[in-house]
From TrEMBL:
One Gene Ontology MF term: metal ion binding
SUPFAM superfamilies: ISP domain
InterPro entries: Rieske_2Fe-2S, Rieske_2Fe-2S_sf
Pfam families in alphabetical order: Rieske
Rieske domain: residues covered: 3-106
Name of the protein in its database record: Ferredoxin subunits of nitrite reductase and ring-hydroxylating dioxygenase
Gene3D superfamilies, sorted: Rieske [2Fe-2S] iron-sulphur domain (2.102.10.10)
Keywords, alphabetical: 2Fe-2S, Dioxygenase, Iron, Iron-sulfur, Metal-binding, Oxidoreductase
């Protein structure tokens, strides 16, 4: 389900992620070459805040990537695949995003409400 997460102006060009909390889900948004990318806000390797320690860029292969400066982790923002210091790491969750009328909408999974007994 697409959810309004931020104003487009809140995510400037440059690759530095901005973290937003949507319900209970922290997500990081970045703009690289005019494209907005959205992914989980914490490094899947050691839970570093990618808003504070991350940088997004276009790799030599043309894929947008995020680098976690904590331990040198690098993840693809198209597949979520990544590695830390050359060793495969857990996948980074990546979310679809669209910009409409000055807002960024992110496709987040619907979490069922807990059942009260």
């Amino acid at each position: 389900m697409f959810v309004k997460v931020a104003r487009s102006a809140e995510v400037p060009e440059g690759g530095k992620p901005v973290v937003k909390i949507v319900g209970i889900t922290p997500v990081a948004l970045a703009r690289v070459n005019g494209r907005v990318v959205v992914f989980e806000a914490f490094c899947p390797h050691s839970k570093w805040n990618l808003g504070a320690s991350g940088m997004c860029f276009v790799g030599a292969d043309g894929d947008v990537k995020v680098l976690c400066k904590g331990h040198g982790g690098l993840w693809s923002l198209s597949t979520g695949e990544g590695a830390v210091q050359g060793k495969p790491s857990n996948k980074l969750r990546v979310y679809a995003a669209v910009e409409v009328d000055g807002y960024i909408y992110v496709d987040l999974p619907v979490v069922a409400s807990p059942t009260v007994l």
